[in-house]
Records
---
Amino acid sequence: MNQKILFAKQTENQTGNSNNAGQTSTEKMDNIKEMGTVEVQEKGRSIHCLTIIGQIEGHMVLPPQNKTTKYEHVLPQLVAIEDDKKIDGLLLILNTVGGDVEAGLAIAEMISSMSKPTVSLVLGGGHSIGVPMAVSTNYSFIAPSATMTIHPLRLSGMIIGVPQTFEYFDRMQERVVEFVAKNSKISKDNFRKLMLKTGELANDVGTVLFGQEAVEHGIIDEVGGLASALKKLDSLIEQIKKDKDGGQEK
């Protein structure tokens, strides 16, 4: 009789554990589906993967058929990643056409100010305001077939035709130039030349760079893929841990 009761309790515990595992798996799938995020816990460390996909949606709501990344979703995630002691590093994956300049800069500024190791990987494209986000991490990679479009700021809708409008545009564009130059190896002058180059884009001013070209110009650190990005992030995490252990020994 006692053996039957014991067996029933063991079965109940196993079923409960299975249900908990199912809930965890479901939560992970929901995060991937709704937010494009996932946490990888292997090798004694935890990495948070954040994706920037499609168009960066800022103050204006984009049409429903557009694939977008909403900055009001990304910013709280970055705060949670920075504050969570269980997360050791951030892998940022980008395939974006650009979007709202202020929203993109806000995301880039937050990533660049994080204390945890960060690595970015440009897949497909890291265009327009995607460039500052790509260089905001501690180290950046770009796939050989990926491209980056560098061009001046654009504005859609009605504007006031006064000198102050041009001055505002110029100051906003300078913010982008300074951020990219500060967080990569390209100079401000060279970045402006790429931004204002004529003849390469049929209906626009600017430059399209492929993977290796982005590295040669000093915007991206290295050509590589997912394995390279994870390996680099692991090394940055390991270095942080060594520095902390060394400080505790002293």
Note: Strands lie at 37-42, 45-57, 68-70, 89-99, 118-126, 139-142, 147-150, 207-210, 222-223.
---
Amino acid sequence: MKKLTIATRVSDLALWQAYHIKDRVEAKYPEIEVVLNKIVSNGDKVLDKPLALIGGKGHFTKELEDAMLAGKADMAVHSLKDVPTYIPEGLELVAVTERQDQSDVFLSHTYGSLDELPEGAVVGTTSLRRRMQLLKKRPDLKVKDLRGNVNTRLRKLKEGQYDAIILAFIGLNRLDLLKDIPYVEKLSLDMMIPPMGQAALGIEIVQGNEKLVEIAKFLNDDHTFLCTQIERDFISKIGAGCSAPVACNAVVEDGERIVFRVMLGFPDGTHVMQERVERALDDVDNLGSTLAEAMIDKGALDLLKDAEKVAFKDEMPQRL
């Protein structure tokens, strides 16, 4: 194999991630030329609506997958949280890079922390997951929709359109965007559970090429692959769509056990179901599916169905 083409989105963060993988592959395989196929995804085009209102899945992955299936790329680098649990025939998700800091982060130009926000303060996020967890902790807050790329969101915060916003720490850190924000507070995993796959990169390849498999496996981290598979199994089993507030996170602690946190409920922070389980590292087979089944037995599917009915109900008449 003399040339490897990587499909990537064109956002600043996606390009950072793609160039990071490009550098790693070229360092390991200097005989291979690595080039990027930069693609504008549907999720990058629609910036004035919550993603939950666009419909369907794979807002940030479909165009990249189409390029691979059309022979225009050999590999795609995704933010794993954007990758649906269903992978199209002809492709495979074979590796997940070592997960970095998974925290969400509170950002403000006025208030030092989430606890310091006054009653009625406006917090920006489009994530139903964050909305649910924020309002569960602080039902007095006003949560306002926030779209646009990272720089646009930060500009809106600086302009005073929001008292605070909540974003993923990892992207801001990779792009060195935290230094100009006066107040930054990382939120603990118990306070703000991340989504499936946060802070890990998914390496998707075209099936049937042993060299591609070898390259992808070189990029894989075993613990991260295990944790994210637990998360993806949970989401797949419970059938959570983009219009349902679901948080789902597995982490290895002390190198010996996995802590798995999940939460689902209404976007307004009510009717919440929450679980936190610990298992030895060698005793986690089917953990994601098993916990999903247990929550389904307690009524999770009906809860999610009702949650989807009320999610963005004010915006639904304008659904795309």
Note: The longest helix spans residues 12-28.
